Amino acid sequence: MLNRDRLPPRIILKYYLYQTTATFGFFWPVFTIFLLDRGLNFTQIGLLGSISAAFVVVGEIPTGYVGDRIGRRNSLLVGSVLLALSVFGFLVARTFPAFVVLWVVWALGLAFRSGSGDAWLYETLEERLDEQEFTRVRGRGGSVNQSLSAATMLTAGVLYSYDPRLPFLAGGLLLASSVPVLLSMPETDRHANGDEDFTVLDALPVLREQLRNPPLRSTVLYLALFFGVVTAADEFIQPVATGSAGLSETALGPLYAGFTVLAAVTSYFAGDIEDLLSTQWALLLVPGLVGAFFVVPLLLPVAALPVFFLMKSARTAVAPIASGYINDHADAAGRTTVLSAASMVYALVRLPMNPAAGALADATTPLAAIAGLGGFFLLAGTLVFVWERPGSEAAVGDGQPAD
Known about the structure:
- This protein has a single domain (10-388), classed as MFS general substrate transporter like domains (Growth Hormone, Chain: A, Up-down Bundle), CATH 1.20.1250.
- The chain has helices at 10-21, 31-37, 42-70, 72-89, 96-113, 116-128, 134-162, 166-176, 178-183, 189-192, 200-211, 216-234, 237-242, 252-268, 270-277, 279-293, 296-299, 304-328, 335-363, 366-388.
- It contains 20 helices and no strands.
- The protein is globular, with a radius of gyration of 20 Å.
């Protein structure tokens, strides 16, 4: 069992080290202006985003199945290599078709990593330490990741001013450094011992039995609504910050670094939040609080930035709690498949939500679109609650596996 008052075991320190390599902070704050500098227009950039989302949806189940076959760590290795290759590709890409190829590679890399890291951590804790510490360790790993992201974000603009390719060179090297770290991490016992009982014919029954039935069914849908609303609202941060909030464009880097620092702190204490509220109430109340506050900036524009900070930190707090809950209710044989399927549901909900929010913003204002997203989440979340009462033991339990 982990002792909170001493240095974490070496295997957990390696997990934290891996988290330092899994960041896009070097290039994320300059991503859009880099693409514009390469001759793309906003329509093409939006199309690339749709292509990426579509490949994430299509790739989640097969890559999750492959992760269950080749092992959690090996799946992370494949994902890291694909992501590094994609980022390095930005150094030479000049045409729209070239960027399409990079986006496909990027999406597949994300799909291979999706679920595999959480499945590796959960099974490692289960086999060697204490799986009840998952949320705490996962949250602190996220805190490490967010902290390094904040630091690298502060350098993005400086690197870009010297050469627009430098942020991508630095980002690609950082992602590539995850390979030796992952090679030093052990595979979980199931895959280290060569267990190949889980076949492709087993994948679909796993999904049917676990995602279509309580407690995962309504919980995954509720979380998908929350993550979808937050992702859609994220698109309006920059226009609101430089518009009604009155910030300059140069202040966006420090603003995003501030988001990341607060998210790191929240992620660090995710386990304490879960202990304080319980799993079921953390998954219900934190998203509900965000949805309610989304309406405030429409009435009081000065509150927009604090609401964005709340949104970013709440999402970071909910992610490890949600992942731990799904791990608790997933069978070991198909754990990565179930986690990837949940990610696929999240992506499916995002697909229509982003353009719908954009159309609402075009017809009204970004603040009105954010308020609309908040109202939609509260209404849709209530319908899910009425349908299957996601706060009850039948849907969002106490974190123990279902019978």
